[in-house]
From TrEMBL:
<dbReference type="InterPro" id="IPR024370">
    <property type="entry name" value="PBP_domain"/>
</dbReference>
<protein>
    <submittedName>
        <fullName>Substrate-binding domain-containing protein</fullName>
    </submittedName>
</protein>
<feature type="domain" description="PBP">
    <location>
        <begin position="19"/>
        <end position="236"/>
    </location>
</feature>
<dbReference type="Pfam" id="PF12849">
    <property type="entry name" value="PBP_like_2"/>
</dbReference>
<dbReference type="InterPro" id="IPR052738">
    <property type="entry name" value="ABC-Tungstate_binding"/>
</dbReference>
Length: 268
């Protein structure tokens, strides 16, 4: 587990006391490199060091339920809303968005290039073309399941395979096997593995991230002060600027769009 050490933060935390928080977040924030950009800046600004645990959004939310994390950064809106409604979470704040994209081999045997998301899923199933799923209860996996449902398709063997792994690993498997997969754009841009971008821009592919504070109602080990510090910082001007600029130099476009303070497109 990566622990990012404080940079000049001893005066804020005291000479012999380490203030350390646990952040449960998604593999997309780690695989894209965003955590490497944000967490050292957060430590320098606040004195809190961060122990990030990168798992699927479903697993991150379960960590929150059990009081095993102080704060969450996730992208599975329906699961988030259910979790907040249970009463053990604090604030849930909009942070940023990007989008999901459907990827596959450049020769596109199922003919999905330029189709709508639902039509693309139907074509993959009809062709029996290999689809590689994360299968890990992540936000990406949840969105994939909803796309199959909207397409009226129940995916299954032999053409449907689950990796049970994060986005970067799943991209590698899909590329090795010349299969289709669903990815967040940030991880695709940073770890494409040679897959072609075939479907994008569908409204159903919007990918929204929220920060959620865990409270001591979930467990006595939770640090509400740490949760509030992270939530305030990541929705503040410094972090939002960093998010908006991340990826431009390397990819010619931002990997995420900062959204703090804007209307929440997932609000129900």
């Amino acid at each position: 587990m990566l622990v990012l050490a404080a940079c000049g933060s001893s005066s804020a935390a005291g000479p012999s006391v380490e203030r350390s928080l646990i952040l449960a977040t998604t593999t997309s924030t780690q695989d894209s490199g965003l955590l490497d950009e944000l967490l050292p800046a957060f430590t320098e600004a606040t004195g809190w060091t961060v122990k990030p645990v990168a798992v699927g959004s479903g697993q991150a939310i379960e960590m929150g339920r059990r009081g095993e994390a102080d704060v969450l950064l996730v992208h599975s809106p329906a699961a988030e809303e259910e979790y907040v409604a249970e009463g053990t979470a604090g604030r849930r704040l909009l942070v940023m968005h990007n989008d999901f994209v459907l990827l596959g081999p450049a020769d596109d045997p199922a003919g999905i290039r330029g189709a709508s998301a639902a039509d693309a899923m139907q074509r993959i199933a009809a062709a029996g073309a290999l689809f590689v799923s994360r299968g890990d209860d992540s936000g990406t996996h949840a969105r994939e399941r909803s796309l199959w449902e909207k397409a009226g398709v129940a995916p299954g063997a032999p053409w449907y395979q689950e990796t049970g792994q994060g986005m970067g690993a799943t991209l590698r498997v899909a590329a090795e096997k010349a299969g289709y997969t669903l990815s967040d754009r940030a991880t695709y841009l940073s770890q494409s593995g040679g897959l072609a971008l075939l479907v994008e821009g569908d409204p159903g592919l919007l990918n929204v991230y929220h920060v959620i504070e865990v409270t001591q109602r979930a467990g006595e080990r939770v640090q509400p002060e740490a949760a509030a510090a992270f939530a305030d910082w990541i929705t503040g001007p410094d972090a939002q600027q960093r998010i908006g600029e991340f990826g431009i130099a390397e990819y010619g476009q931002p990997l995420f769009v900062p959204d703090a303070g804007k209307p929440d497109p997932t609000a129900t």
